[in-house]
Amino acid sequence: MSDLNQKIQDALANPKNLGEMADADSIGTAGSEGCGDMLRMWVRFKQDASGRKVIDRATFQTFGCETAIAVASVATELVAGKTIEEALHLSSSDLASPLGALPPMKIHCAQLVETALRSALDPKSATVSDSPVPVASVAASTASSPSLRDSFTPQNDSGQKVRIILKTPASV
Ligand code: FES
Fold first, then answer.
1. Residue 110 in contact with residue 100, Cβ under 8 Å?
2. pTM of the predicted model over 0.85
3. Do 118 and 94 touch, CB atoms closer than 8 A?
């Protein structure tokens, strides 16, 4: 197993900051038109000792592949304690850097994480590539923070039920 695969498997075995955050200050969601995967990130801020507004905690949920889960896990740890400006300077490769360099076909997985994070921090800067697109960005104070699953409407425009198939770790 390659070093990258080992690190991804390690992150999957013990993903950090997984799940919605009830007291988040901001939420960003991104979807990949290429693979259909989605990722939502919740962010809570705090003031640090020098009075700067910094990221206290970030969490995520995703209908995404193993790489997206692993990148989101390490990225949420990486951004803790950073200001919004500092976090916005991080590229997808920066966010994935604890795992190592991703192969070209997996770069969009890290861009999905970057787009969701940017969508939460600054919706205007959320478009980072042609592939992952920001789906929604809401201030948590003005909206409930539904889980990613809850945010899908149970019916489509014609009133038919929409079937959602959730990926399990064994099927990604
Ligand atoms: Fe879609 Fe990884 S294959 S996010």
1. no
2. no
3. no
Q: Which two tokens stand for residue 85?
A: 């400006």
pLDDT value of position 132:
66
Active site residue 65: no
Amino acid 65 reads: C
Strand-pairing partners, residue 58, are 43
Nearest protein CA to atom 4 of ligand 1, as residue: 109
Residue 124: pLDDT band (50, 70, 90) is: confident
Report the alpha-carbon distance of residue 75 to residue 92 in Å, rounded. Answer: 9
Question: What distance lies between CA 121 and its chain's CA centroid?
Answer: 12
Fold type of domain 3-152:
Sufe protein. Chain: A (3.90.1010)
Q: How far is residue 145 CA from its own chain's centroid?
A: 14
Catalytic residue among 55, 72, 99, 109: 109
Q: What single letter denotes the amino acid at residue 81?
A: G
CA of 70 to the centre of ligand 1 (A): 11
Question: Which runs of E-coded beta strand occur in the chain?
Answer: 26-32, 38-47, 53-63, 132-139
Residue of 32, 33, 40, 111 to mutate, ligand 1, most atoms within 8 A of C-beta? 32
